[in-house]
Design a protein that fits this description.
Strands 4-3-9-10 form a 4-stranded mixed β-sheet, covered by helices on one side. It starts with a helix and ends with a strand. The protein contains 2 helices and 10 strands; from the N terminus they run αβββββββαβββ. The chain is mostly beta strands and 139 residues long. A hairpin with a 4-residue loop joins β9 and β10. The longest helix is centred in the N-terminal third of the chain and has 11 residues.
Length: 139
């Protein structure tokens, strides 16, 4: 593998170094979709962010978005909106693969996570292929 390609992959795997500005402040929650089957960013993936109501367990839509050409979706939530609780990122992975003329075992992927300290920065990437996915908490 060429040094250029290795550097390109490294830049997509490492946590986002740039600060995304929304309403004058960085988003405390970021995500990044990586197509691990092809080694490229997952661009044009529709996603939705929800927060769970702790008293009723009902999910409330916070925002919708689409990943950019780098597989990122800047400005998911403002610091003022970001409260402790349970959140869910819903990714339309079936649509993503269909847009490339391929099928996928997973029509969508949902990542549910708990925020206990909203003053921290949370990075929740999705590593994706047609038949598997993984995630982790980055920074």
């Amino acid at each position: 593998m060429s040094a250029f390609r290795l550097q390109q992959l490294k830049s997509h795997i490492l946590a986002e170094r740039k600060i995304t500005i929304m309403s004058g402040s960085p988003s405390p929650l970021t995500t990044h979709v990586l197509n691990t089957a092809l080694g490229v960013p997952g661009s044009n993936v529709t996603l939705r962010l929800y927060q769970q109501d702790p008293s009723s367990d009902v999910w409330h839509l916070v925002t919708t978005g689409m990943t950019n050409s780098d597989g990122r979706c800047p400005g998911l939530i403002t610091q003022q909106q970001f409260k402790p609780g349970v959140y869910k990122l819903h990714f339309e992975t079936g649509q993503y693969w269909a847009s490339m003329g391929q099928t996928s075992f997973y029509p969508y992927v949902e990542i549910v996570f708990t925020i206990t300290d909203p003053d921290q920065k949370y990075h929740v990437p999705l590593l994706l292929s047609r038949f598997s996915y993984s995630t982790y908490r980055g920074s």
